[in-house]
Amino acid sequence: MIPEPGSFLIEVYKQAQAVATKLNKPIDLAIGASDLDEFNYDQWVAAYGATDVVPPPDEFKTYAKEMSMPPSTDSNTNFNKTDEIALDPGYSALSCSVTCDFNWWDKDTASVDVGVGQYINRFNNSGSWTWQSSMADENGNIPVWMETWKVSLATVGIEVTCLRTNRAWRAWQLDTFGKLWNAYRARLQEYNDAVAQLQLNAGVTVAGQ
User: Fold this and answer.
1) Which residue intervals of the chain bear CATH 2.60.120.380?
2) The domain 60-164 is classified under which CATH number: 2.120.10.10, 3.30.450.70, 2.60.120.380, 3.40.50.11540?
3) Is the pLDDT score of 53 beyond 50?
4) Which of 29, 78, 145, 162 could staple 91 via S-S, CB 3.0–4.6 A?
């Protein structure tokens, strides 16, 4: 029979070994900020239990605006309206698409002019009811406007497709990498503290799995 102090130490040793086998050293953060993308970042988030990482910004965003001319009983009404489309920070205009529908007083002279940024198109009865154009990487607020002639009623729909900027993408990569690094360091510290405590309690040498 093993003396009582020896039995106690053996039991402590066994318990320490059981706990040690459950310890998992966090994997190394073997990537740089520029390696992060929308397909792999969540794997690293899960690996370290990072809780403050935000999803990457969408590559494309579409902004819409509708403008309309109220019904008019004056055949000589020259209606105009201005507005703007506010883009989110980190996006620049790539292209626009405009549709126009109107009723006219004079089929031959009726028109609706539409402007999106620096680009302008005239809608009349001899052309298409839709118009598309490339944009010039505008950001911030894009001015839009419409002006009618010999029209009794008009509705204009504008869509601007935007592309995520390289600066916005890089900012997300750097921010995400910093948060992953902090989470990795926190998990590594937790692991090292647990190993040190086991070694202190039972003199057990623990190897990371």
Assistant:
1) 60-164
2) 2.60.120.380
3) yes
4) 162
